[in-house]
Design goal:
Largest sheet: 7 strands, antiparallel
CATH class of one domain: Mainly Beta
Shape: globular
Distance between the termini: 174 Å
Mean pLDDT: 79
Low-confidence stretches: 3-28
Strand content: 25-35%
Number of helices: 3
Helix content: 10-25%
Order of helices and strands: HEHEEEEEEHEEEEE
Radius of gyration: 53 Å
CATH topology of one domain: Jelly Rolls
Number of strands: 12
Length: about 210
């Protein structure tokens, strides 16, 4: 190959390379880039094991309410009833302290303060319920914890000294000429207990005493 032919080939090759480079951009355009998914993928939350909550029932004991105190109207009504009964059922006797009075439900009791039975004295206890109470019980109980001579404990006395024999809304221990006498030569601490056997409402008791 002569020099002219070789030069022609080099010029033609250079022209082709120059044309090819000019037709291609240096960097790829957006249209030439591979498609990319730009949506963020959020992983689903994994289930968490939980312990089931078991409801626990708490048993609450219901305690019955105690006796309520009589109001002024109830106290006056019962005191008036005792005054009307005393002339026939506690003749020539004087009240021993104030009446005990409480508002109770059926089967409940109310008791007064401890007082002392004296040798040589005679006692009557009157009990009364207002019309909503149809059966009243009253009893006289020994109260060794309330004081008195320690020698009483050695006598082995039964706690219940006397109970009323009556039926209905009125009751009495030692009424009329059968007053209750303390049979021991030393004083004894006792208390009066009134019970609404039938019905609910105010109940009361009054103690009377006199010398034999």
């Amino acid at each position: 190959m002569n020099v002219k032919c070789l030069g022609a080939v080099l010029i033609a090759t250079t022209a082709m390379l120059t044309a090819g480079c000019g037709s291609q951009p240096e960097f790829a355009t957006n249209d030439q880039l591979p498609a990319t998914n730009t949506t963020a993928t959020v992983a689903a939350p994994q289930p968490v094991a939980t312990t089931p909550t078991v409801a626990t029932a708490t048993a609450t004991a219901t305690v019955p309410a105690g006796p309520a105190t009589c109001d002024a109207v109830q106290s006056l009504s019962l005191t008036t009833m005792f005054q009307g009964r005393a002339a026939a059922e506690a003749p020539k006797m004087q009240p021993e302290g104030s009446p005990i009075c409480g508002v109770v439900t059926e089967g409940q009791t109310v008791s007064g303060n401890t007082f002392v039975l004296q040798p040589g004295n005679c006692y009557t206890v009157l009990a009364q319920g207002l019309p909503t109470v149809t059966e009243v019980d009253v009893q006289l109980e020994l109260d060794l914890a309330g004081g008195g001579a320690p020698a009483l404990a050695a006598l082995n006395i039964k706690p219940m000294l006397a109970v009323d024999p009556d039926t209905g809304p009125s009751g009495a221990i030692g009424a009329k000429q059968s007053c209750y006498s303390w049979p021991f030569p030393i004083p004894g601490a006792v208390k009066v207990v009134v019970k609404a056997r039938q019905g609910s409402g105010p109940v009361a008791a009054q103690v009377y005493s006199r010398k034999k």
